[in-house]
Amino acid sequence: MPTETDLCALSATELLEGYRKHELSPVEVTRAVLERIERLNPLLNAFVLVSERALDDAKASEARWMSGQPKGLLDGVPASIKDIILTKGWPTLRGSKTIDPKGPWNDDAPATARLREHGAILVGKTTTPEFGWKGVTDSPLTGVTRNPWNPAKTPGGSSGGAAAALAAGMGALAVGTDGGGSIRIPCSFTGLFGLKASFGRVPAWPLSPFGTVAHVGPMTRSVADAALMLNVLALPDARDWHALPVERRDWRTALDDGVVDLRIAYSPDLGYAKVDGEVAALAREAVRVFADLGARVEEKNPGFESPEAIFRAHWFAGAAALVSGIPAQKRKLVDPGLLEIAEQGAKVSAAEITDAQMKRGALGMHMNLFHRDYDLLVTPTLAVPAFDVGLEFPPGKKRWIDWTPFTFPFNLTQQPAASIPCGLTKGGLPVGLHIVGPRYADALVLRAARAFETARPLAMPDLGRLK
């Protein structure tokens, strides 16, 4: 039997192959993950809740594998759920002291339900900033979550607990949400692969308080695992009125077809973003991988002005609606930053929201036209590397939107976008490369990411120094 470290480092694809050959045990894998959580979670603060049933669920999985009757595509794979997403029998507190833990908690969200149906072992719920409102992970309820690459740094957010758990080997798969970068931000900061699928690809219910900019998607340590996970997460759920028609396909098909002759536009700054020099250099060097693999790479900005004002109208107004639903006597418990943007959002008029919606449509059309000439757009994922924990933004920046100029535009356009690690700073912190595809071209984004990953395999942090 492999060591605890080996078991916790294995991908979902590797675990399933081991179960199939009876070379690995779901019980031993789950026990190793739970031991890792017990050891590292006090430092990293990735989990707000750890399952008391995980080993029992693993024993049931092992019995199914031994009888040759696995349950679905993920039987026995340890996975986590972000504490924004409903999970039957567990409180979903959303990082907030304003929610009553007593519930009732009678529903699984679509993502949770699909993972259960396919036999995944739900090991717990991961931390989030309050209601997922910002790009780092700390909250009045759970405190500060830390980065396994350097615990003095943030893992990003809002799916920061999910990222910290994955990067530290506390589970092979994680479900995240992304309303402005909340999958891609922490994946960039922690050296993971994360996909914000096309809006509606992964059914979500209830709809995010921030509306139709918010996506649900897979966070993994390999592209193949994300494609496998998408096979499960993208299954239909009638509760999501916005969901796309289901595609009866295996998202792993053609994953290794490469990028030969793909037309790739590389934009180092979208024409307006200010990017850290080290991040910019790592991303520029990484883009050469696509050219070496046979793609036709051209430096080209997509040609739109910063859509920050459009996004703010959507996001801040959503925050205002969210806070208005919290009883007045409980608002003193809310993160002051969330209250601040809610106050600004309350001043956005109906006419301004309508104008922002029209401009959002124009931006979406612009990108549709752009992708007639380019199969993919590649940028850095973020403008900065991971910064100190406890801060919403690094020195010289303001609000989380200011240091995420590459992520939130593509929540507005609802395009598929992924972050994949492309190198380390001199300080040993991961940097992500951002791959954006036309709407609904999720398979193309996965294929390009897989080609890059094959040339530049992902790595996990050195956990031996974490005490």
Explain the overall architecture:
- Helix content is 35%, strand content 13%.
- It has 14 helices and 13 strands.
- The protein is α/β, with parallel strands linked by helices and 467 residues long.
- The strands form two sheets. It has an eleven-stranded mixed sheet, sandwiched between helices. Strands 4-5 form a two-stranded antiparallel sheet.
- The longest helix is centred in the last third of the chain and has 21 residues.
- The mean pLDDT is 97.
- A hairpin with a 5-residue loop joins β12 and β13.
- The chain is globular and about 60 Å long.
* Total count of helical runs of at least 4 residues: 14
In CATH terms, the superfamily is Amidase signature (AS) domain
Mean pLDDT: 97
CATH hierarchy class name? Alpha Beta
Oligomeric category: single chain
Structural class: alpha/beta
CATH architecture: Alpha-Beta Complex
Query: Low-confidence parts, pLDDT < 50 over ≥5 residues?
Result: none
How many structural domains does the protein architecture include?
1
CATH topology: Amidase signature (AS) enzymes
Q: End-to-end span in angstroms?
A: 25 Å
Radius of gyration: 21 Å
